[in-house]
Amino acid sequence: MENSKEGRPAPELRVVIDDREVRSGLPEAVSALWTPTLIGRLPVADIEIGPRLLVERKTITDFAASLEDGRLFRQARAISRAALRPLMILEGEDGFDLLGLPPNALRGILLTLLVGYRIPILRTASISETAVNLAQLARQEQRRIERFGRTARGGRTAARTALDILGTIPGIGDEKARRLIAGLGSLKEVVTASEEDLRRVSGVGPQTARQVRATLDGPTLERRE
Predict the structure, then answer these.
(1) Which CATH class is domain 1-155?
(2) How confident is the model at residue 177 (pLDDT cuts 50, 70, 90)?
(3) Which of 47, 88, 89, 209 fits a 20 to 30 Å CA distance from 218?
């Protein structure tokens, strides 16, 4: 792969999975879809995708345990500080009702992770689905490196951070993210906007509005209400 701007081979993006994930089968599943996938000990998070992405993987049971013992927000703080693009994957077919939390309390936790720590939540049903998403993220990051070169960790602006947060939602690139923020006034307004409010933004159709709300709310949260 070449960097079109400089004519030099683009750096090959590595996925590193923490060795404590070996028993889950995740390294094997990802390596079948993306090369190079390496196993090592990560000081923060469970998966590192290139220089920008750190991913924390939790089952609903893990999520509940980490919330109960206080690890959840400590981990969120560490990932947010260490990564330009942090992400949390909640894996498994279990619903949020296993947490035993009222919907408003759960929504508050998810919004704290998103807005307070800029960590979006991605739901997957299984290890194989998690692996597919991680490989897709690796492909996107590789394309970014090919276009723009390796991204430094420093110099992140508030505007760039807001675009990056919304950019983790499937189908939302920089252009739509800018439209949403400009149309509604701020990242916070986008996060809390109803689907109807999102549809009012120029260039944002019904499908995009549904995707934004579904990603931010979580599929099982809607069913509980």
Answers:
(1) alpha beta
(2) confident
(3) 47
